[in-house]
Hints:
The complex is a heterodimer. Chain A contains 9 helices and 19 strands. Chain A is an alpha+beta fold. Chain A folds into 2 domains: 212 residues, PmbA/TldD superfamily (PmbA/TldD fold), CATH 3.30.2290; 226 residues, no CATH class. Chain B is of the alpha+beta class. In chain B, strands 8, 9, 16, 17, 18, 19, 20, 21, 22, 25 and 26 form an 11-stranded mixed β-sheet that branches. In chain B, strands 1, 2, 3, 4, 5, 6 and 7 form a 7-stranded mixed β-sheet that branches. Chain B has a 6-stranded mixed β-sheet with strand order 12-11-10-15-24-23. In chain B, a hairpin with a 2-residue loop joins strand 1 and strand 2. Chain B is globular, with a radius of gyration of 24 Å. At the A-B interface, strand 2, strand 3, helix 2, strand 6 and strand 14 of A face strand 2, strand 3, helix 4, strand 7 and strand 9 of B.
Amino acid sequence: xxxxxxxxxxxxxxxxxxxxxxxxxxxxxxxxxxxxxxxxxxxxxxxxxxxxxxxxxxxxxxxxxxxxxxxxxxxxxxxxxxxxxxxxxxxxxxxxxxxxxxxxxxxxxxxxxxxxxxxxxxxxxxxxxxxxxxxxxxxxxxxxxxxxxxxxxxxxxxxxxxxxxxxxxxxxxxxxxxxxxxxxxxxxxxxxxxxxxxxxxxxxxxxxxxxxxxxxxxxxxxxxxxxxxxxxxxxxxxxxxxxxxxxxxxxxxxxxxxxxxxxxxxxxxxxxxxxxxxxxxxxxxxxxxxxxxxxxxxxxxxxxxxxxxxxxxxxxxxxxxxxxxxxxxxxxxxxxxxxxxxxxxxxxxxxxxxxxxxxxxxxxxxxxxxxxxxxxxxxxxxxxxxxxxxxxxxxxxxxxxxxxxxxxxxxxxxxxxxxxxxxxxxxxxxxxxxxxxxxxxxx
Amino acid sequence: xxxxxxxxxxxxxxxxxxxxxxxxxxxxxxxxxxxxxxxxxxxxxxxxxxxxxxxxxxxxxxxxxxxxxxxxxxxxxxxxxxxxxxxxxxxxxxxxxxxxxxxxxxxxxxxxxxxxxxxxxxxxxxxxxxxxxxxxxxxxxxxxxxxxxxxxxxxxxxxxxxxxxxxxxxxxxxxxxxxxxxxxxxxxxxxxxxxxxxxxxxxxxxxxxxxxxxxxxxxxxxxxxxxxxxxxxxxxxxxxxxxxxxxxxxxxxxxxxxxxxxxxxxxxxxxxxxxxxxxxxxxxxxxxxxxxxxxxxxxxxxxxxxxxxxxxxxxxxxxxxxxxxxxxxxxxxxxxxxxxxxxxxxxxxxxxxxxxxxxxxxxxxxxxxxxxxxxxxxxxxxxxxxxxxxxxxxxxxxxxxxxxxxxxxxxxxxxxxxxxxxxxxxxxxxxxxxxxxxxxxxxxxxxxxxxxxxxxxxxxxxxxxxxxxxxxxxxxxxxxxxxxxxxxxxxxxxxxxxxxxxxxxxxxxxxxx
Lengths: 443, 513
């Protein structure tokens, strides 16, 4: 069908066309207090069409894939391109010489054969164990099990035709611990490509329970500047700010604080960040990016020095730089945009325990709230929770405080990077220590 | 001049929503999708085949495993957007979504299935799958669907979907020109117009049969300024359940000036302080605060599951005496307004807090039934791909009596929040955090230095008790898209000028005391 759409668009007179087709099957199950609460099943499909005519861009999407509607849809997309202004850099990506596509093993054929009762059992069990973890755990938010099969097709008029079939499967639980009027939530989950890679139900349940209980009694501290340790699972939200600031279009428009920093140091020497979507079976892996380019490993920051920005093909052409392979589609409803695919901050060689032991008074952050980095200025400000460190030990839980500083300074003040990298998603980081940050709390 | 700016919620950048539209509740089905200037794909819309008999059949199939309630939700949505940046029309785009979602309930259980393939066989299969959640004898054999008249709260004369993109482009050019002319230091300007035109049919086993045509539109101008390596941003927009007649060149000009003003005002901003301070929230532009910090904790699903901080507080004092809070889906033209919710219930004005006392929660059908109460018209869903859950519409702090000038004068050293930015909250603990795109120091009752990089942090229950002054100048404006349980939904909010006696500010500067 994608082939047909591209051919029809060419026949109607466009210069270049790309069709992006998605076909998904999803299953989602929620359990609360031992009973199945919701079961949701769906199949969705849709197509996004990008056309260029005289260097003018048009884009449309539809989930109405009947023959007569498709013809109309293609015509309309062409009409839309007539409204846009021509830009010399508009057009499909230049594919050049690509690396060979390797098998990433992202498809588990057994996913569609998991029996319903097995899914229900897993969701029930993870909830039951999490609730039993501690007497103070009083309620369940819900536990869940979900799986998905999807097929993505990109066809364009430069002869590219690529298909990816992938699966995803996961389960998790969220519980509430209470003591007096204090309530705290804790959740954990496991998400994989293959069913048999899923983590142990008991481990996931206990982690959720532990996360709820350990926060009980959390309180703000007084406003102070101290060393701060970002836990590996909380660190992601900090790195997102940096990755957004690397967006090629913002660099071109000079609207990011990192605009003038290519090939210059932006972080402490022990910071290296790569984007690697080529790890077999990993949840953040994909064989080709949002524009259909074969993915590869890219180094963004090496020993603190900024190596590249993140461009889509149009922005790269506009800026006159070499295109990289980091674009993403957010479904068929939008064109590809520049984004890292599976960012990894490299592990250091100090244990997290050692890092904490080396701090007389400090803040071990395990939760962050809010957007954090303001891209134009690099200002960093978030809500934070975690634990206070006194004389190298965890002293008490903390919540209701803020962290304030500037991303550029924080990056330079990274003193230690831990060896605890755990690859769970599409942005992966070890824990790390920043020499000093403002913690805003009580007066 | 009316200020058009309103905080953009976090998800707003991902999903830009639109709504508005008059309703023809009594028209034959095929006419539901007719249009003043009908685009061809709406005339040939396959939904026209979904007549009452078919809906009836699907409901009956949904109930065949013993379900207590079955519902069919039909949606056809057209989204248009056009954007300008770097002095060029970047692109115009258009999208069509259509599909059917079928829900079956039994006790606390929900079965949900949806399909974008509208062939009768596929829909029957969808109904059957949704019904599998239930087990037991058939409780209902058939249903008689009755059309319901509903009121209209949308201000739509001309559907934005009927306007050709070339016309919308004129607004963008005007906004671009005025914003660039505002100050030489403005280095980037973006202007966008977008509209969502959604047609829905809701039919259920209780005989409800409702149709609605929702339109949401928005014109937005954003600016960046640069001077000696210092950067700032500004933005302003007008939007709501509004037809195209609400937009013209003058509106574009006003928005552009406002976006320019904010970027220039924030260019010399200094690091904000960290610590506890009194704050004054400007009227109209800080309602997100109440949506996030309070509203989410008063949604009926959390109340039923006892997972929100207010679940057992109905009838109790949860706020200072001068605090009254409403959620009101009937504000004409507001972004969160709805004629009916996504379960076919008419929108209504719900008082959540009256003079400091918690008076109720926001309910959808399911949570209301399980709590032995009635739906408040807040059962909402993002699309046919989602089942409804309790959601806010337009949430606002009601007017008080304190003079806005006195409110400002009462603060010796504090923060003035001219507009509040994106935020989020944990409904369980009530803890929230908000960004502040435009904030200033208050010194001796006067607004002074602009501040950058500050966040408001605290928890809803504490803040409610700490509201010490409320002005009479309520404004409901703007809004964004609220995200909950993976579903984005257009909402709006509002507030009069008010004072919170103390709240934690997160900034980079530590005050030496």
